[in-house]
Amino acid sequence: MTNPEVSRHILSVLVKDSDGIISRVAAMFSRRGFSLVSIVSGITEQPGINRLTIVADADENTIEQITKQLNKLVPVLKVVRLDQDTTVARGLMMVKVSADANNRPQVVDAANIFRARVVDVAPESVVIEATGTKGKLRALLDVLEPFGIRELISSGQIALSRGPKTMAPGNR
């Protein structure tokens, strides 16, 4: 993001549950040269409807083009650009940290400080699961780094707008 007009945008997209929709969305970004930061797909409260959370770096004109292009895809029911000030967005991270009997209590304490959970313990490592903002997850990694990060995986963000407003397919 070197261009000062470029900023991070979160799009929430309702789609019919159909094979290949992620591929089609990713191909649209690639074909048009749009900057796709992350894409996450998940089920919704309505059977047969999935929600994609797309994070993209773009200027105003480009994000409008992305929205228009997404609306042209057949299984897309609705596209909403989420306002960062009125949105709850979280990512998921799992990290395997070196931990033996001597330093395991400190690793567990570090996880607890960040409200992360230890989900697996082995003789020489622990696996920690954490959710939160990008900043919180980065801060947790900074604290765990001295112990030794063995493996790491992080999801893209998922997001919902605050308040009573919903994205039910009929609410355009």
From TrEMBL:
UniProt xrefs under Gene3D superfamilies: 3.30.70.260, ACT-like. Chain A, domain 2
Catalytic activity field: 2 pyruvate + H(+) = (2S)-2-acetolactate + CO2
Domain of life assignment: Bacteria
Protein EC: 2.2.1.6
InterPro entries, alphabetized: Acetalactate_synth_ssu, Acetolactate_synth/TF_NikR_C, Acetolactate_synth_ssu_C, ACT-like_dom_sf, ACT_dom, AHAS_ACT, AHAS_small-like_ACT
EC class of the enzyme, as a word: transferase
Ranges for domain ACT: 10-84
GO MF annotation list: acetolactate synthase activity; acetolactate synthase regulator activity
CDD domains: ACT_AHAS
Its biological purpose: Catalyzes the conversion of 2 pyruvate molecules into acetolactate in the first common step of the biosynthetic pathway of the branched-amino acids such as leucine, isoleucine, and valine.
Family, as annotated: Belongs to the acetolactate synthase small subunit family.
Quaternary structure note: Dimer of large and small chains.
Name the record gives this protein: Acetolactate synthase small subunit
Species annotation: Corynebacterium gerontici
